[in-house]
Write a structure and sequence with these properties.
heterodimer; A: mainly alpha; two-stranded antiparallel sheet; 13 helices; 1% strand; globular; B: 355 residues; mainly alpha
């Protein structure tokens, strides 16, 4: 029983960052600006918050720094992709590369293999004790003692659903994504919407980076993201950009990562292979979604998504 | 005569659009170097002088350029057709791994049989790894970018497991397969790092130069990249073309991985393809070379200069060798703008309006 509780509790732990990236990325996805740079933006967030926390010992300053850098990255990405009409897939890819490069360069300049901030991370930052809720049998131990951002990420599902479907901004994002011509004709400022969509994504990715680097691991290395940004992109694709559906996939991927990690503690060296469960699972899901979509399609020949 | 002038101008723009992002990246890099309290000019001089203008350095650069050019061609082949195939990295390391294992097991075979055999097997491994995303894209239109990216992670995990458990060399202090046999190692030429593999690359390059510029497939790739729907409407069988393109690109990647193993690494370690990895290097090279074979050749050599130069920078200066990774990332960033081509086409269309 404890083992099962551990699996579910860990899957919340792993889902948090994936969920933040997924919800962040889907605004840009809905506005027709697929952001491949989610991974890099998350890595930058983790990097800057660990670096600033290391030097200032204040998580507030670290968090603000992560936010500022995220806005800067969002502006960079959208200036290139929207204003300058660059190939934003490549811009996103460049941001991923840049995140690794900056991290490696600074680590080399500091002469260290990681930025360790364990002494600045309090127990309360790593895991919040919910008190009475934690006492509920089964559910209590599963949801208790996660970080604030992990809880926030689940609340965010509903916020995003609301924003995207019940606010003016959300409607504009969807209109821009569906038809720029239509958006232009009713006077929506397309560029502004796209900028905002990208910056929201950058912010949430930075939160994800902060969550992993500070709350969960209390250290930064250039591989802390481990493909989370790409898993998020897959989740967005699988759920067609709908916050609820995409989040469902994000949770599924979090669960499979938790399975891999927990089972590996039980069955020895072969467990290394289990690490690939999340990736294989996404590919299977994408395939099934692809097959179903194909069945529904009535056109002849090869179709673009 | 007038047409020639136009073509000349166009290739001039192409070259400029290659050089300008590099210059901007180097300028930003110079600022970073200034922060490290070093002279950027000196650093850049060391970077190029020792890896390009001295014969031993140049041969070393060419040695490194081999797999990079193949990886660049592999990426260009699919990107030019509008397929964002990011699986090159996974294909390279899979091929490298298989070749490493077989190069150890079959070491009793003579070199003349073993080396070509391993290169062929490596190529096939690349193709096999590419089959899954190719089928998924061609038949079910599953997003090839997501699938290939995730497949890379899965492959890395599998190889990590196999290397650290099943095929681990117990006598080695770190995680690594057994070293390939002496008969599988390609001999070095001219007392430098260069091996026969470079000449294999040259032959492959010539073949692909022909495919890109003179063959029906090359034309179809360009057509697909420009407008897939139109290409299909004219009667091209897109599904089949997607399979051919992705498998060929897998073959190139496999060959690159096999060659890198037999001419440089000799055993599979977890950092076999380096960071950010040969496949990602190939992406930068393909972009820098604007997906044309000659461009890729130049970009591949330029990139190899950076690679050889980075170790010299680490030896002779206080700047971390990671400055090179930073430069590469900046180059990709500014390449995405394609500024010159756009500015030029804008001017051209304006002139047309005037006439």
């Amino acid at each position: 029983m404890d083992f099962i509780i551990k699996i579910f509790s860990d899957s919340l732990y792993f889902t948090g960052p994936i969920l933040l990236c997924t919800l962040g990325g889907l605004f840009a996805y809905k506005a027709n600006m697929i952001n491949i740079g989610l991974e890099g933006m998350m890595l930058f967030g983790g990097f800057i918050s660990a670096l600033i926390l290391f030097f200032t010992h204040s998580w507030i300053i670290a968090f603000i720094a992560a936010i500022l850098l995220a806005i800067l990255l969002g502006l960079l990405f959208s200036y290139f992709g929207v204003t300058k009409k660059a190939n934003f897939i490549i811009t996103g890819f460049a941001i991923n590369l840049l995140a690794i490069a900056v991290g490696k360069y600074v680590l080399a300049a500091l002469g260290s293999i990681d930025i360790n901030v364990i002494s600045d991370v309090t127990r309360q930052m790593a895991a919040i004790d919910l008190g009475i809720i934690g006492e509920i049998p089964v559910i209590g131990p599963i949801i208790n003692k996660q970080s604030f951002l992990t809880y926030f990420s689940f609340i965010l599902i509903f916020i995003c659903q609301f924003v995207l479907f019940n606010t003016k901004f959300g409607t504009y994002v969807r209109v821009v994504g569906e038809s720029e011509e239509a958006a232009k004709s009713i006077g929506i400022s397309i560029n502004k919407i796209k900028y905002l969509a990208v910056i929201i994504g950058a912010l949430l990715c930075a939160f994800a980076g902060y969550n992993v680097a500070i709350n969960q691991l209390a250290s930064y290395t250039p591989d802390i993201t481990a493909g989370t940004g790409f898993i998020a992109i897959a989740a967005i694709y699988c759920g067609a950009g709908n916050p609820k559906n995409s989040s469902l996939y994000a949770i599924l991927f979090g669960l499979s990562r938790s399975l891999a990690v927990n089972l590996s503690l039980r069955i020895g060296t072969i467990a290394g292979l289990l690490e690939m469960i999340p990736y294989i699972m996404i590919i299977i899901v994408l395939t099934v979604v692809g097959i179903i979509r194909k069945r529904k399609t009535l056109y002849r020949g090869f179709l673009h998504e | 005569m007038k047409y020639d002038k136009q073509a000349l101008k166009q290739s001039g723009f192409k070259i400029l659009s290659m050089i300008i992002p590099v210059l901007i990246a180097f300028a930003i890099g110079a600022i970073v170097i200034l922060f490290a309290k070093e002279n950027p000019l000196k650093i850049y001089f060391i970077l190029f002088d020792r890896s390009f203008f001295r014969i031993q350095g140049l041969l070393k650069t060419l040695h490194y350029a081999g797999p990079l050019i193949l990886a660049g061609l592999a990426i260009a082949l699919s990107f030019k057709a509008g397929l964002f195939n990011m699986g090159i990295e996974g294909q390279i390391i899979s091929a490298g791994f298989v070749v490493a294992v077989l190069g150890y097991l079959w070491q009793s075979l003579p070199s003349i049989v073993l080396i070509p055999l391993l290169l062929i097997i490596g190529t096939l491994v690349g193709v096999i790894v590419a089959i899954l995303p190719a089928i998924l894209k061609a038949r079910y239109n599953v997003n090839e970018m997501v699938v290939t990216l995730l497949l890379n992670y899965a492959i890395i995990q599998v190889l990590e497991y196999l290397t650290s458990n099943v095929f681990r060399d117990p006598s080695s202090g770190y995680v690594s397969t057994n070293m390939i046999g002496q008969s599988a190692i390609m001999t070095r030429l001219f007392g430098s790092k260069l091996t026969m593999f470079f000449f294999v690359v040259v032959v492959v390059f010539v073949i692909f130069y022909y495919i890109f510029n003179r063959s029906k497939l090359g034309y179809e790739i360009t057509a697909m990249g420009k407008n897939r729907f139109f290409a299909e409407a004219t009667g091209m069988r897109i599904q089949r073309k997607i399979m051919i393109i992705m498998l060929t690109s897998g073959a190139l990647a496999g060959l690159a991985g096999a060659g890198w193993m037999l001419s440089e690494k000799f055993s599979y370690t977890l950092d076999f393809s380096g960071t950010p990895g040969l496949g990602w290097d190939g992406m930068l090279i393909a972009l820098l070379g604007s997906h044309s074979p000659i461009g890729i050749l130049v970009a591949g050599i330029f990139y190899a200069i950076l690679k050889t130069g980075s170790s010299n920078i680490a030896i002779f200066t206080n700047v971390p060798a990671e400055i090179i990774v930073l430069l590469q990332a900046l180059i990709v960033l500014f390449l995405s703008l394609k500024m010159i081509i756009k500015a030029a086409s804008k001017r051209a269309s304006k002139r047309k309006e005037k006439n």
